[in-house]
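Ticket #4471: structure export looks truncated?
Reporter: QA, pipeline team
Priority: medium

Steps to reproduce: submit the single chain below to the structure queue and open the exported record.
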Amino acid sequence: MSAEQTPSGTPSPDVPASSAAPTTPSDPTPSDPTPTGPMPSDPTPSSPAGRPPRSQTPLPTLRPPTGPPRKPTDARRANALAGRINRGGAGPCYGLVTDDGRQYALHGTGKGTFAVGTTVRVTIGPADPAADCGPGIPATIVDISPVG
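Actual output as written to the record:
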């Protein structure tokens, strides 16, 4: 029974007849206790904008690779090296072996003293044709510093 009707079902004299519209189960009113959202027994919450619930959305996956990459995937400067000194001393010639086994013959005046076995990081430039520093790929030292 609504507050706008008398126990007999007729509109109360205090309320105008136009505002005393009868209510039906298909026409819920704000005082109607029927919930309009999901029922409490529904385990999945409704999703916004009409999207399916997350549990029903498949996760994106990558396809398996068709083979190894054709180009290197890590950006590496061509003039930067790291390795161990295998011919050291006070310079100006040094020998360097990188982790991949490449031998470099480095030339650099006043670059410091490096003992054999020291791990260094080197920035190289074009080789000086007047310098012969032994076996390996010739290069000029732009910068050299010990690692660790």
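Status: closed, not a bug. The export was complete when the record was re-opened. Leaving a note from the reviewer for reference: The mean pLDDT is 77.
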